[in-house]
Amino acid sequence: MVSKGFRKDFLWGGATAANQLEGAYNEDGKGLTIADISPGGKLRLPLLFSGDFPLEIDREKYTYPNHQGVDYYHRYKEDIALFAEMGFKTFRMSISWARIFPNGNDQEPNEAGLAFYDAVIDELLKYKIEPTITISHYETPLHLVKEYGGWKNKELIGFFEKYARTILERFGKKVTYWMTFNEINTGIMGSFFSTAMRNATETENYQALHNQFVASSLATKIAKEVNPTIKMGCMSIYATMYAYDSNPETVMAMEEKNCMFNYFCNDIQVRGEYPSYALAYFEKNKIEIERTDEELAIIKAYPVDYLSFSYYMSTTVSIDPKHQDDKIQGNFFDGVRNPFLTSSEWGWEIDPVGLRIALCDLYGRYGVPLYVSENGLGAIDTPDEQFVIQDDYRIDYLAKHIAEMKKAVVLDGVDLIAYTPWGCIDLVSASTGEMSKRYGFIYVDLDDEGNGDMSRYKKKSFNWYKSVIASNGEEL
Ligand code: BGP
To answer: Which residue positions are annotated as catalytic (predicted)?
Structure first.
């Protein structure tokens, strides 16, 4: 039956990641992660993709904004009280693997790290905010890169399994919603954040992803043993894809990209099997990865319960050479300019209808509950002397996306369970390490140079989102 609006138990909230939020990068026994050696600034992503950066902290050359994040580690009580004031039903957070196992593969977990997340989770539950936990959000322990070469090494499966078991056993009785790897499909392009490898070959990228699929299914297996009511989800970027024109060759080129980028990881994690187009792609491109029968059986036996995805923008594919000079940069991918869309200050094309298309497409393909785990506008906010921030542009972006989500639910019958806009409190940008690329309802007084006392201020969007939640998405 098609519903009249969002479900009564719809999980409104916000999303974050430990490495972009917490700071305290070397406190209470935490080890270094890949985020801790990722330089700040607009060159971050090109640098990380070039592989030309040290696996050490080099303060002479670079800045490291993730080291202090926005100091959530010490201010989480104040921040959670603000989330509660907005009426959050859920809060998507990640656990930093290196707070629990500083090297990623230590014999014993670090009790101080576990105690921190116990306190955070209890604080959320105090306000009846259901945590959603990402087990790995761009924060593989650095030791596993230096000693094991990152995710192409199958030993990481066992290390991850132990880490997942530790946190699921500790928190699995009080936390229902979990996700395994953040934006797992960025591994296809060899994102350092995702697979923790430098200068990897395409074969290594797919090997690393395979190892993560196995690790993800093992985490699902453990979750079910710990508490059968746990809901385990996968998480990938979804970029609605358009063919620039109706030339069948353009549509075919778009479809090929669509399969490998938007479907490949979801097909495996939701359906439990490698899709035939991927096997054909491997064969055509001489990609040979090591996949044992036992691993394939684990993937088959433990698919996820729901599918979550980040949605910031769509992308457009053209095979016409004259369009190739007019490229749009996006969230880990590029495309040609879509003449029907405008862009954010960081060049990401804004496309609310694309979100409805995404929801219909994914629900039609998989038929499992969907969770929009990231969405939002990275923008420059300019506070006045009283720190009043009139962020109508953000309200406009979010309202239009929520309106399209609602159409997907009401008009198209999609089973949507949650919406957690990205960076509900300002935090360090993943792609640039900037503070100036802000997404939050809550402003944090900190700039790109590290100036500011990190006080928190409610933006105009704070009260707007509060009334969206109170009206269950009716008042936009
Ligand atoms: C996603 C990541 C997040 C986040 C977000 C916004 O790709 O999962 O970690 O940061 O994008 O991107 P950015 O911070 O680069 O603007």
So the answer is: 374 (nucleophile)
